[in-house]
Amino acid sequence: MDADRVVVLADTHLRAETAGRGPARWLPDDVVERLDGAAAVLHAGDIVDQEVLDRLGRWAPVHAVLGNNDDGLAGRLPVTLELELAGVRIGMIHDSGRAAGRPDRLRRRFPDCLVVVFGHSHIPVDQVGLDGQVLFNPGSPTQRRRQPYPTFGELVLGGGRVLERRILAVGPRRDGVSRVSRGGS
Question: For residue 176, what pLDDT is reported?
Fold first, then answer.
């Protein structure tokens, strides 16, 4: 069975290079390396600048939703999005709300989706919600906040199924952990 590897991002908070401010910060090398060969890129908001989407689009088709820091992208990006990749129905939203009640809330919001991708909290989430629906927040590859390390995600999809789900750590880790992985569903 053919499988598609999808890179999942959220909360990158990157700005394009502007005159007099020097080079723009870009995604960590760990993320850029995984973009090679990706079938698609999903970005769950807080992109900040159209240039980020344009650059990501050099690797693969990009599907993105509007985040609360994406004022310049209002009107260009939807608040929610539903799409199908490799036969898998995926819903996307930036802010899924509080963790309490999230599985029920997202099942109601995206009843036909096997996977729901979200962001906002910068906290990686890989959990199975109601009726087997996968709830997936890749965290942030650029702003770890209170997390031990920055993260991003990958989904491997094929034949209408999620074959693998991964939350990947970015950069060197003092504890020697290079990747935090979870199995498929």
Answer: 45
